[in-house]
Every structure is written in structure tokens, then in C-alpha cells.
Amino acid sequence: MSENNSSVATILAVDDSIVMQDLVKRALAQDYRVLVADNAVDALSMIYHEQVSILLLDVSMPGIDGLELCRTVRNIPQFQELPIVMLTARDGLFDKVQGRLAGATEYLTKPFDAAQLRQVVGNFINSNQPSEVAD
User: Fold this and answer.
1) Measured between alpha carbons, how far is 47 from 54 in angstroms, rounded to an integer?
2) What one-character DSSP code corresponds to residue 34?
3) What radius of gyration, in Å, describes the C-alpha atoms of the chain?
4) What is the largest CA-CA distance in the chain?
5) Distance between CA atoms of residues 57 and 73, nearest Å
6) What's the rounded Cα separation, in Å, for the pair 20 and 87?
7) CA geometry: angle at 19 spanning 34 and 58, to 5°?
8) Could you give the C-alpha distances from 19 to 12, 23, 35, 36, 57, in angstroms and in order?
9) Considering only Cβ atoms within 10 Å of each terminal Cβ, which end of the chain, N or C, has fewer?
10) Which of the residues bear the PTM 4-aspartylphosphate (predicted)?
11) pLDDT at 131
């Protein structure tokens, strides 16, 4: 990409699996700044302290799961428009409906295709270009 570092979008991937964190980083790090968290508490802290453009959430995590984290983020006024992509192994229709009801913008299943993940993230980044550059 021809953008400088201050204008590169930041993606936060929340997954308790180090392997999945690494796969997401490998899929997206060439074009985006990728942050990872392995739990909901750390993820909430990060979205408050970083200019996160997209949140990628696993559903199955110990403690607060991805669905509850998604609902929590949606209830915080400044994050109501933040794109949230559920990235999970749960691929049943009921799971997808639960994800949408929790406030997910998109739902992708694992194992994910890296090109598909890049496309989904790129679509959100391109449709949500900020009018000012964040610090």
C-alpha cells in the first residue's frame, strides 16, 4: 500500500487461540496494523485506547464470549458504528442469527480463507474512510 503508517487502518482480532491470532496477523498485516487480544477485557481496553477500524471476534472464548463482547461494544455510543466481524468455528444458522442479533456486521467461519478475510476487511475499510487522520 502507498499509505504512510499514520493512515493505515487498525484491526483488532480477539481470539483466545494464539494460532488463530497468528493466522489473522499473517492474512492482514501486509496492509493493516493488526492488534490482538485473547480476552474481552483486554479487547475493551484496546478499543478505548486505539483507533480501531474493525473488530474481529471469536465467539468461543473463556469468560466473556464473543457474543457478549459484541453486545457490550454495541451498547457503547462511540462504537455503535464500528464494524464487527464474527470469526468463529460455529457455522450453524442459529449461530449466525445469534451473531447478527448481538450486533455483528459480518459473520465468517473458521477455517477462514485469507483472501476472503482481506476482502471483507477491505470492503469495510474502503466504505468507512475517516475524514480526518487519527493521532
Assistant:
1) 10
2) E
3) 14
4) 42
5) 11
6) 10
7) 70
8) 15, 6, 14, 11, 14
9) C
10) 58
11) 42
Sheet holding 52-57, edge to edge: 33-37, 10-14, 52-57, 84-88, 106-109
Whole-number pLDDT of residue 130: 46
- Total residues found in the chain within this entry: 135
In one-letter notation, the amino acid at residue 4 is N
Between CA 89 and CA 20 the distance in angstroms is 11
Comparing CA positions, the residue from 21, 11, 99, 7 lying closest to residue 55 is 11
**Cis peptide bond upstream of 130, omega within 30:** no
